[in-house]
Amino acid sequence: MIRIGLVVLTVVAALAAVGGAGWFSAWWWFAAIPLLLLALLGVRDLAQRKHSVLRNYPVVGHARFLLERIRPELQQYFVERNFDGRPFDRDVRSIVYERAKGTDAEEPYGTERDVYLPGHEFLVPSMAPSPVPQTPPRVRIGGPDCTRPYDMALFNVSAMSFGSLSSNAILALNRGAAAGGFAHDTGEGGLSEYHLRSGGDLVWEIGTGYFGCRTSQGAFDAGEFADKAAHDHVKCVSLKLSQGAKPGIGGVLPGAKVNAEIARVRDVPQGRTVVSPPYHQAFSTPRELVRFIARMRELSGGKPTGFKLCPGSRQQFLAVCKAMLDEGTAPDFIIVDGAEGGTGAAPLEFADNIGTPLTEGLLTVHNALVGAGLRGRIRVGASGKIATGADLVKRLVQGADYGNAARAMMFAVGCIQAQRCHTNTCPTGVTTQDPRRARALHVGDKSERVRRLQEATVASALQIMASMGVTDPADLRPHMLQRRLDPHTVRSYAELYEWLSPGQLLAEPPASWAADWEAADPDRFTV
Questions:
Q1: What is the CB neighbour count within 10 angstroms for residue 31?
Q2: Which residues contact 498 (CB under 8 A, 6 or more apart)?
Q3: Does domain 139-468+475-518 have CATH number 3.20.20.70?
Q4: How many helices and strands, by DSSP H and E, does the chain display?
Q5: Ramachandran angles phi, psi of 395, nearest 5°
Q6: From the centroid of its chain, how far is CA 276?
Q7: CA angle 203, 238, 339 (to 5 degrees)
Q8: How much is the CA Rg of the chain, to the nearest whole Å?
């Protein structure tokens, strides 16, 4: 309000100066002209829809763009950083912003990366490229126990809750998903009207707090869950076991952001800080987890149901696989969340030291399911710093069927990574519950950016696959992704990692998996 008041004050001062020039002395024009220009600039900033920063900070917000023009490297701290404070790839950020705006992201004169540094990865082109498919392929989600399968896009909006994000941010993401025909994961913060208003396909995520389907004591409420899961826009249900950026601890929503609306959506007290427990009350063993997934699918009317996790112990995941085999049922999908995923609500020590990176997590889950003979009925999603078509193709090579993105989608709706998510003072209106700040985020403009980003990213992935001689993601193979180990040695993923064959764990586990498979117990999560 103060910021808008300053613009009003400038307008009044400009008019007064003009009056002074007309009635008293021409010398007043020296004050009137600059004040008029500032007033016009302030009014323009408030009226435009392109830049959320300028809508919230008229006139003074131009300082940010001035810094970017004069000294781009100064933006290294202010813009090009992860939510945990570590540097974010400037080239990737540029690609995301340009694609969201619908402008050309190509730059001449080749790469600026040192392709001979250890760790550099590259996809292998073919001498016989394939035509780029005209229609992007989709992934059928739904095993034999699912009666209402869903065709998932290759690239979707990852889990971000209402409460963590503003109502306008949720509206923009969902409207973009509806326009582009891809899925929007609600995050664990409940199912709000902003998720439902625009008609986008939803993956309803249920976390340890059971927000939106919980009793007054915080337990799972089957009746409320069934009522909400029946909504036509809810296409899948995802049970969150852990999050990549903070596995092993629950989420936190500061009390300052828990207004009456969020309290109603989450079934929690207004104004009180909401802390999700680190564990689920509804189950405590691998077998109970599998049974709970099956129960959720039944309560939802047969919709695809799965779970999300940041993998840790391979033995524990194998125990879940054994429980699936014993129970004769399995989730329809599993979302693997990498430790490199971002969040505005994780202790730095967790972000830096806890959790399996996405590559190793995908390889563990994919190979475990293949070896247990379960991969054919379970689809695998990948989430964790996926921002470009190349990122997506690499994850498909590593065992995923589709990808989700949170950070890139936040960029599309205007996030500049000011790292003020927890303060309720987000300068672009993305992560605030202050209606005056949230209004700066124009839903129509930002939803179109979300749609364009998803469309361009999938198109880029298909173009890359075509250059590799592949038209269907199912035809991607481990030898198509290579990594430099040192200046003289390059190895493919087929050589770097062990890839199990279907049912191999059931027949004769390889030596490297035998001990974990033997120790895996479907009736307890062994440490």
A1: 16
A2: 367, 510, 512, 513
A3: yes
A4: 21, 15
A5: -70, -35
A6: 19
A7: 105
A8: 25
pLDDT tens-digit series, residues 69-81: 544 444 444 443 3
What type of residue is 86? Answer: R
- Note whether 381 and 402 are within 8 A (CB): yes
Count of Cβ atoms closer than 10 Å to residue 369 Cβ: 26
Work out the angle at residue 443's Cα, subtended by the Cα atoms of residues 59 and 58, and round it to the nearest 5 degrees. 5
Residue (of 238, 253, 89, 245) closest to 165 by Cα position: 253
- What does the DSSP 8-state code read for residue 73? G
**CA 358 to CA 361: how far, in whole Å?**
5
pTM, two decimal places? 0.85
Let me know: does 272 contact 255? Beta carbons within 8 Å. Answer: yes
Q: State the alpha helices, DSSP H only, in 260-341.
A: 260-266, 286-299, 314-327
d(CA 219, CA 19): 67
If 0-12 CB within 10 Å is exposed, 13-18 middle and 19+ buried, where does residue 395 land? buried
Distance between CA atoms of residues 343 and 417, nearest Å: 11
Alpha helices in 156-221 (DSSP H): 167-180, 193-196
- CA proximity to 346, closest of 430, 242, 268: 242
What are the boundaries of each domain within the chain?
2-78, 139-468+475-518
Least confident of 92-101, 288-297, 364-373: 92-101
Query: Does residue 236 sit in helix, strand or coil?
Result: strand
Measure the CA–CA gap between 374 and 385, rounded to whole angstroms: 27
Inter-residue contact 323 to 295 (CB < 8 Å)? no
CA angle 204, 415, 245 (to 5 degrees): 55
Nearest to 233 by CA among 262, 203, 261: 203
**Which residues have C-beta within 8 Å of that of residue 205, sequence separation ≥ 6?**
159, 185, 186, 187, 188, 238, 239, 240, 308
Question: In this structure, are residues 45 and 59 in contact, taking their beta carbons and an 8 Å threshold?
Answer: yes
Give per-residue burial for 289-301: e unless 16+ CB within 10 Å, then b. bbbbbbbbbebbe
Query: Model confidence over 167-200: pLDDT tens digits?
Result: 999 999 999 999 999 999 999 999 999 999 999 9
Give the pLDDT confidence of 451-503 residue by residue, as tens digits: 999 999 999 999 999 999 999 999 999 999 999 999 999 999 999 999 999 99
Q: How many residues does the chain have?
A: 527
Report the distance separating Cα 84 and Cα 349, nearest Å. 10
Q: Are 289 and 208 in contact (CB under 8 A)?
A: no
Distance of CA 299 to the CA centre of its chain: 27
CB of 333 closer than 8 Å to CB of 379: yes
pLDDT in tens, 22-56: 677 776 676 667 766 766 766 765 666 666 665 66
- Pull the structure tokens for residue 350: 């967790």
What token pair was written down for 461? 């992935």
Query: What residue type is assigned to position 154 of the chain?
Result: L
Tell which residue, 497, 381, 476, has the closest CA to residue 123. 476
Of 68-77, 171-180, 238-247, 433-442, where does the model show the most confidence? 171-180
